[in-house]
Amino acid sequence: MIRELRIQFQTVVLSQEQKLNGYEFMAYSNLEPGPFRWWIASKQAWQNWQVGEIAPSLLLIKKKGLWSQEPRGERKALGSCSEVPPMDDKR
């Protein structure tokens, strides 16, 4: 659960070397750090609220006409969406 979601987007100035190697565009996209908590399916309970990085940022790349993305780290899911109760659930 995230109280307020904001997306940050920051373009990267390409170097001459990157341009010569076919890079046309690069940018970082991430969720702004803020308060969040996770649902722990095994305990059927919410974790305490915490403040910090919600998800790792992505590097978006356009190289030689093709778009790709590279994650900057991975998070393991703590449960599936169907196991998470609605936001108004006070557990």
How are the SSEs ordered, and which strands pair?
Blueprint: E1 7-11, H1 16-20, E2 23-31, E3 34-36, E4 39-40, E5 45-46, E6 50-52, E7 58-63, E8 66-71
Antiparallel strand pairs: 1-2, 2-7, 3-6, 4-5, 7-8
| Morphology | elongated
Total beta strand runs: 8
Number of domains: 1
Please mark out the parts with pLDDT under 50 across 5 or more consecutive residues, or reply none.
none
Strand content: 35-45%
> What is the helix content?
under 10%
Q: Give the count of helical stretches.
A: 1
* Helix and strand sequence: EHEEEEEEE
How large, in whole angstroms, is the Cα Rg? 18 Å
Kindly report the spatial arrangement of strands forming the biggest sheet: 1-2-7-8
Largest sheet: 4 strands, antiparallel
Roughly what is the average pLDDT, rounded to an integer? Answer: 82
Global structural class: mainly beta
Give the CA-CA distance, first to last residue: 13 Å
